[in-house]
Design goal:
- The protein is an alpha/beta fold and about 400 residues long.
- The protein has an eight-stranded mixed β-sheet with strand order 1-2-4-3-5-16-6-15. Strands 10-12-8-13 form a four-stranded antiparallel β-sheet, with helices on one face. Strands 7-14 form a two-stranded antiparallel sheet.
- Strand 1 and strand 2 form a beta hairpin.
- The chain starts with a helix and ends in a 16-residue tail after the last helix.
- Bound molecules: zinc ion (ZN) (2 copies).
- One zinc ion binds next to loops.
- The site of one zinc ion has 4 residues, from loops.
Length: about 400
């Protein structure tokens, strides 16, 4: 069956490219998606797949029920774009000024739709169900995943697989990682409150700029001196604003920054430590502070069994030498929420190819993918889904794994 699926994916590849380019030309920002979910739903409906729209807001969920009983596998693709102006010189360049698919989510969507088309034609042979989760708003916290889960997109789902097309790895490579793989990404904001006055009379003021200078240096020591060195973390001050004139000490100074972690205990610790340093430094100098720590997506933690299962199957598709263990990625992904609910994995499909101009990092105005990566992704997702269903089939005499044995 899998070979038949690969053959059919190959033959509908031009259609996947067409879908991807259409989405690329008509990108929509996170939480503002209208036409994209409409197109996705219409396509799934045309395949005779059960479709639910408006899931968690703007999500679309297609359920393909196999003719034979079995487990339910979810596959996820996100479909939002970014507030970036497309600077590529290609025929499928974005037609919306200032909005661009600069992360490859158009490719994710086209990949999953292509796979839905092929699998829907083979439902007679399907030993279980496949749920296609088309997610809105991955790029902007709180993200679409959490709302879609609350709206039931994982109900009845036994396992989930998803991938990110990845331009910093060459096409033909697949990366996996067990355990914490992508970071929790949080934001902090500190307002330092002093008492302004004349720049020539500092003794009559409480200077929030000096407070800020000390705080920025002190914050560097959270990771170097406080956090367990075996657990990675980042504390970055991304902006510091204070004052306007050369001879005036302002009342207030404000800094904002980001914290990246892989472990909940480190995340809690850093939230606490930043607050304590801000309070003690500002108070020690006679001022005060206001501190807000806003949690973004949690760390993405891949489940061991499903990840190694996927890695083995990927070797059959791209060859053993082209499947590699990823380094941890400090970027965040709201796919993390799905993995908090059901077992599964999130892997990376190489999509870089300098000869096609696909050599820029994600979120770059010239970002592009080698579109053949969609075929690699579709085959790998198909293999994961079909092999999972086969392994857990309730009526397959060839399977010696027993009834409903968990993965
Ligand atoms: Zn992105
Ligand atoms: Zn992305």
């Amino acid at each position: 069956l899998l070979n038949e699926i690969y053959r059919q994916l190959q033959s509908i590849y031009p259609e996947m490219v067409e879908i991807r380019r259409d989405l690329h030309m008509h990108p929509e920002l996170s939480f503002q998606e209208v036409e994209t979910p409409r197109k996705v739903a219409a396509y799934l409906q045309s395949l005779g797949i059960e479709v639910r729209t408006g899931v968690g807001g703007k999500g679309v969920v297609g359920t393909l029920r196999g003719a034979l009983p079995g487990k339910t596998v979810a596959l996820r693709a996100d479909f939002d774009a970014l507030p970036i102006h497309d600077e590529k010189d290609v025929p499928y360049k974005s037609t919306v000024p200032g909005v661009m698919h600069a992360c490859g989510h158009d490719g994710h969507t086209a990949t999953l739709l292509g796979l839905a088309k092929v699998l829907s034609g083979l439902r007679d042979q399907l030993q279980g169900n496949v749920v296609f989760i088309h997610q809105f708003a991955e790029e902007l916290a709180p993200g679409g995943a959490i709302a879609m889960i609350e709206d039931g997109c994982l109900d009845g789902v036994d396992v989930i697989f998803g991938t990110h097309l990845w331009s910093s790895q060459p096409v033909g490579l697949i990366g996996y990682r067990v355990g914490p793989t992508m970071a929790a990404s949080d934001r902090f904001e500190i307002e330092l409150i002093g008492r302004g006055g004349h720049g020539a009379a500092p003794h009559e003021t409480v200077d929030p700029i000096v407070m800020g200078g000390q705080l920025i240096v002190a914050l560097q020591q959270i990771v170097s001196r406080k956090v367990n060195p075996t657990k990675p973390a980042v504390v970055t001050v991304g902006a510091f604003h204070a004052g306007e004139a050369f001879n005036v000490i302002p009342d207030r100074a404000k800094m904002i920054g980001t914290v990246r972690t892989f472990h909940e205990d480190v995340r809690d610790q850093i939230e606490r430590e930043i607050g304590e340093l801000a309070a003690s430094i500002s108070e020690g100098m006679g001022g005060s502070c206001e501190y807000i720590f806003s949690r973004g997506y949690p760390a993405l933690v891949n489940h061991p069994q499903e990840t190694l299962f996927l890695a083995d199957l990927a070797k059959e598709i791209v060859g053993e030498q082209n499947v590699f263990e990823l380094d941890q990625i400090m970027g965040g992904e709201d796919y993390a929420y799905y993995l908090q609910k059901v077992p599964g994995t999130f892997f990376f499909t190489g999509a870089g190819n300098p000869s096609l101009g696909a050599e820029y990092p994600h979120h770059h105005p010239k970002f592009d993918i080698d579109e053949t990566s969609m075929l690699v992704a579709a085959k790998t997702l198909a293999s994961a889904a079909l092999n999972y269903l086969k392994l857990h089939a309730v009526d397959d005499p060839a399977s010696n794994k027993g009834l409903n044995r968990p993965a």
